[in-house]
Amino acid sequence: MIGQVQNVIATQVDSKAIALSEYISWFSLADATKAIVHHAFWLADQKQKLSPKQYKKLLADQGWKGEEKKYLKIAAAFSKFSPQDLAKIEPLTVYLLANNSNKYKPVIDTLLDLNIITQEAVRSLVKQQRTPKRSKPEKPSIWRRTKNGGRYCQIPPIHSEDEQTGVILQKMIDSEGLSAQKIVAEAIALRQAYKEGRLVLVNEEKNVE
């Protein structure tokens, strides 16, 4: 009987210890976030009030030189909030939003409309913001690489219902004894000359008597 009572007491003590530990952990986290935001606001205020020389001296005296930028980003990103408003957000989340303030501006703006800002709410908003990126269509290229680092152009297959292009090209190959590459090169040179004004199309009209 004594053993059972001891087990019950031990269980109750363990439960209270766990609850107290969780409370202390949450309380410390809230204090950490508030301290970070408060420090960021204070540092931004000092930068406004002090001369550049005094501000640099402040950073040097406190050993913050090189560390101040991330706090100034927090002050800029959350200028419309108070440290207490952000108490329930994890410090890492505060840094994340501040370091990417342009990307997460819609998230930060939405937080202004919330009565209570929680980590869960922020996480949900961030997840909504992360829309999948659309892959840009690749620009068609006729260039191919050789094993030795050179390159050559390769014209993609030409599809047409009447197969006229292929038929004409084949006739030229058969009658002139030229390669397809040579004929295509000449055709491209003629088209380029026409576009540059070096070649003019002339329509000959034959008068029928």
Topology:
Blueprint: H1 2-49, H2 52-62, H3 68-77, H4 91-99, H5 105-111, H6 119-129, E1 143-145, E2 151-153, H7 164-176, H8 180-195
Antiparallel strand pairs: 1-2
Helix pairs in contact: 1-3, 3-4, 5-6
Please provide a written account of the structure:
With 209 residues, the protein is mainly α. The chain folds into 2 domains: 2-129, no CATH class; 143-195, no CATH class. Helix content is 60%, strand content 3%. The chain is built from 8 helices and 2 strands; from the N terminus they run H-H-H-H-H-H-E-E-H-H. It has a two-stranded antiparallel sheet.
Relevant terms:
single chain, 209 residues, mainly alpha, 2 domains, two-stranded antiparallel sheet, 8 helices, 60% helix, elongated, disordered N terminus, disordered C terminus
Helical region count? 8
Gross geometry: elongated
What proportion of the residues is helical, as a percent range? 55-70%
What strand line-up does the widest sheet have? 1-2
Structural class per helix/strand content? Answer: mainly alpha
Please count the beta strands (DSSP E, at least 2 residues each). Answer: 2
Strand content: under 5%
Low-pLDDT windows of residues = 1-26, 205-209
Would you summarize the structure shown here?
The chain has 209 residues and is an all-alpha fold. It is built from eight helices and two strands.
